[in-house]
Design goal:
Elements lengths: L35 E6 L8 E5 L2 E7 L5 E5 L13 E2 L5 E2 L6 E2 L5 E3 L15 E2 L1 E4 L2 E5 L23 E9 L3 H9 L4 H5 L14 E5 L2 E11 L3 H7 L7 E11 L2 E9 L10 E2 L1 E11 L2 E10 L6 H31 L14 H16 L2
Antiparallel strand pairs: 1-11, 2-3, 3-4, 4-9, 5-6, 6-7, 7-8, 10-11, 12-19, 13-14, 14-15, 15-16, 16-17, 16-18, 18-19
Bound molecules: FE2/S2 (inorganic) cluster and fe (ii) ion.
FE2/S2 (inorganic) cluster binds next to loops.
């Protein structure tokens, strides 16, 4: 088992280890640093100081006047004053709100007001690699030498005219792996979400798991059931229409999960259309060891230009995902509140993909040690 992470700033001390079995990551496994994680919505970052904790690193970030995004340690190098409570000047320098030390976008101190003839070499803030790829902004808290932009998932298609999307965000009081596991496991649909996502035989269909490198794909197909209620109005498919429902849920990186669906209506009952594609991008960022951020984009290739439908999807998916958030937070509470050292999770066949994902994360954690 990996060592327990108890570093300052990584959240509370675990009260109860998961004891999942050898070689499987759990809520105590050290966070995977060499990975891109979403920091914010791109549209929400302006020329104003913002603050967010990412993997236990407290960051201050903003968009410069020329449009790039800068992320720095949110702690003045002089006396730890939080820089997001400071002043951002028009020349993109941050002036600390305590004694006025002033920092450039690369984190170097360029001015010490109490010693104007001092060349403040060596006074600097940690600077973090950032990529602004709308609609998301990504940050890297690991080894900057390894921050390869090529490791970002490809989702530029979502900005095209062929797609519309709803979106949302939750802060989740639970370890980020519990969110990944929830997304790998679609057998919970009909029990946790009821009719909104589940259909009567959904949990029974066989899952096909494929591992390629560090990605794990779960695929299942259901035939002869109606479209889930969530998509009924948008697709225009009636609940009497039996469809073929394909569902991929793919762990891509510790910061990203891709869920690709397809509804097939071979009879073309709705104006001859035979295929409908929903695709959900899930962006998961550990805040600390035991708290996380969760952004999602719920995209569709049906009625893509319908802005009211975008809002409907934002609202309805927020309702559904709140049920996931509640489940994850209740489980986290359960881990924390009761010391049951002999407890071991029982795995069932449909957990195959999630267990493989957790093995990969366990290996990644060991490799970064
Ligand atoms: S604490 Fe920032 S200048 Fe002193
Ligand atoms: Fe769910």
């Amino acid at each position: 088992m990996p060592k327990i992470s108890n570093r300052p700033g990584t959240g509370k001390k675990p009260a109860n280890r998961r004891r999942s079995g050898d070689g499987i990551a759990d809520r105590d496994t050290p966070l995977i640093r060499n990975c891109w994680y979403v920091l914010d919505w791109s549209a929400d970052v302006e020329h104003a100081l913002k603050n967010r904790m990412v993997l236990g690193h407290d960051l201050v970030y903003f968009r410069t006047k020329s449009g790039e995004i800068t992320a720095l340690q949110n702690r003045c190098a002089h006396r730890c004053f939080p820089l997001h409570r400071s002043t951002l000047h028009d020349d993109d320098t941050i002036q600390c709100g305590y004694h006025g030390l002033t920092y450039a976008t690369d984190g170097k101190c360029v001015k010490v007001p109490s010693a104007m003839d001092l060349k403040p070499r060596g006074i600097r803030l940690q600077h973090y690699p950032v990529i602004d790829r709308p609609p998301m902004v990504w940050v890297w808290t690991g080894d900057p030498e390894k921050a390869d932009p090529g490791l970002l998932p490809d989702y530029d298609w979502v900005n095209g005219d062929d797609w519309g999307y709803g979106k949302g965000f939750y802060h989740v009081k639970g370890n980020y792996l519990a969110i990944h596991e929830n997304l790998m496991d679609i057998t919970h649909f009909q029990f946790l979400h009821g009719a909104a996502l589940g259909t009567p035989r959904h949990a029974e269909s066989k899952v096909h798991v494929t591992v390629k490198g560090n990605t794990v794909d779960n695929y299942r197909v259901n035939e002869g059931e109606p479209v889930p209620q969530l998509h009924q109005k948008a697709t225009g498919l009636s609940l009497e229409t039996p469809i073929i429902r394909h569902a991929h849920s793919t762990f891509v990186t510790p910061g990203f999960h891709d869920a690709l669906g397809k509804f097939e209506d071979p009879a073309g009952t709705n104006n001859g259309r035979t295929e409908y594609t929903p695709r959900i991008l899930h962006f998961i960022t550990p805040e600390t060891q035991y708290t996380s951020y969760y952004w999602w984009i719920f995209a569709r290739d049906f009625k893509p230009g319908d802005k009211r439908l975008d809002n409907t999807y934002s609202r309805r998916t927020a309702q559904v995902f709140e049920e996931d958030k509640d489940a994850i937070e209740w489980m986290e509470e359960q881990w924390a509140k009761e010391d049951r050292p002999d407890f071991r999770e029982s795995h069932v066949p449909s957990d195959e993909g999630a267990v493989k994902m957790r093995r990969i994360v366990h290996r990644l954690a060991r490799e970064q040690d």
